[in-house]
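Write out the bound-state structure for JFB.
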Amino acid sequence: MMRLDVLSIFPEYLAPLELSLIGRAREKGLLELTVHDLRDWTHDRHRTVDDTPYGGGAGMVMKPEPWGEALDAVLGASGAPADAADAADQPAADAGGRPVLIVPSPAGEVFTQQTARELAGREHLVFACGRYEGIDQRVVDWASERMDVRPMSIGDYVLNGGEVAVLAMVEAIARLLPGVIGNPESLDEESHEDGLLEYPVFTKPSVWRGHEVPAVLLSGDHGKVARWRRDQRLRRTAETRPDLLAALPPESLDDRDRAV
Ligand SMILES: N#Cc1c(-c2ccc3ccn(Cc4ccncc4)c3c2)n[nH]c1N
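---
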């Protein structure tokens, strides 16, 4: 069972993860998700997590101490090495099983469906939700001695903190875990699953405000429906995301596809 830990000064931001698919997956024991309040690892009266930046500049930076203690606690529960010496002794073969520290950041690698698939295969994911101008870099440097650290961005725009990104990433990863999605076939032909966008979908009524469902979908001819859907995926991708079409390996399109 995959273990996910989320560290945040706004744990209530992650409440939606208790709902719907992810909530049911937790109840079914398909994943173990714990959201922690970073301030639980502060020791002053004001539960301070930030301070002014060395070198000056606007804004505040998240102090390293609470993060270090929080990660010690989270890693301690997973049996990961507590210090650099133990970490160095950990055989490289275990690297695949090392906990992953995902640090949402506007300066991170862009999170894609491929990233979600990769991370869905890991045993323990820890998400560090920063705020302010970010987390003291030494937290990443220290964690890199004992975890696979991945600064990660969900897109080229600026948010105020990491929580929204973690909601998106946890959903994208968790839905790929066995048993989370009722019918795993619904993952096939989704946008970004095989490099093409998904086809348009319709349901009853067959006519709505003068708009009809494409006749082929009412024909009962599964071969024609499959072909129509494939054509729609190719057209949509060419129109909306030509970059995805250009990135497809040549062998993934047949001559008929190229004629669409
Ligand atoms: N993932 C992701 C992100 C973030 C992001 C993530 C974590 C933090 C923590 C603090 N901030 C605020 C901030 C810090 C530095 N520069 C600008 C803004 C964050 C933004 N912005 N845009 C994305 N795609």
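---
The first helix runs from residue 20 to 27.
The pocket of JFB is lined by residues 104-106, 130-131, 133-134, 152-155, 157-162, 165 (CB under 6 Å).
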